[in-house]
Amino acid sequence: MAVLLCSGQGAQKPRMGESLLEVPEVAEVFARASKILNLDLPDLVLNGSEEDINNTFNAQALTMALSVGIGHALETRGLAVDAVIGFSLGEISGLALSGVLSVEDAFSLLMYVHILWMKHALSARAACLLFWELMKKQPAKFVRLL
C-alpha cells in the first residue's frame, strides 16, 4: 500500500527544490501554478532571498508546487497510490493529487484561502488599533477590565 503525505507549510531555505525543477512533472506544475498565482515560482526557487521564500504566501505556493509536482512524478513513474493525506496546507495538495481538484483549482483555492486569511488578519489588526485608541482616550475604563 502506498500513501502520499503532503506536508503543511514549513521553513524554506534558498534554492530549496532547485534540482527538482529538472523533473518534467515538477516543472509543469510550477509553470501552471505560476500562471494562476501570477508569480514566477521557478525564479523564486532559483533567485529568491530567504525573506522572499519565507513570506507566508510564497512559502505555501512553493511547498504546494513541490508536493503536487513530486506526487505527479512518482505516479508517472509507476507508483500506484492507494491514498493521499495532507496536513494543513497539504490538504489542498492532497486534493490535487487525488484528482478531486485540478492543479489550477487547487492553486486558485490557495489564493482564496490566503485572501480570507489576510482579510481576517487586517480585521484583527483594525480591532487592536481601535482598542488602543480607545484605551488612550479613557485608560481608567480599560484598566478596570484588565
Brief write-up:
By secondary structure, the protein is mostly helical. It has helices at 24-37, 41-47, 50-54, 56-76, 90-97, 103-137, 139-145, and strands spanning 3-6, 83-86.
CA radius of gyration = 20 Å
Can you summarize the main beta sheet?
2 strands, parallel
Low-confidence segments? none
Mean pLDDT: 86
- Strand content bin: 5-15%
Biggest sheet, strands in spatial order?
1-2
Shape: elongated
User: Whole-Å distance between the termini?
Assistant: 56 Å
- What letter string, H or E per element, gives the SSE order? EHHHHEHHH
List keywords for this structure.
mainly alpha, 2 strands, elongated, single chain, 146 residues
Describe the protein's architecture and organization.
The mean pLDDT is about 85. The chain has helices at about 25-35, 40-45, 50-55, 55-75, 90-95, 105-135, 140-145; strands at about 5, 85. The chain has about 150 residues and is mainly α. The chain has a two-stranded parallel sheet with strand order 1-2. The chain is built from 7 helices and 2 strands.
Map the helices and strands:
Blueprint: E1 3-6, H1 24-37, H2 41-47, H3 50-54, H4 56-76, E2 83-86, H5 90-97, H6 103-137, H7 139-145
Parallel strand pairs: 1-2
Helix pairs in contact: 1-4, 1-6, 4-5, 4-6, 5-6, 6-7
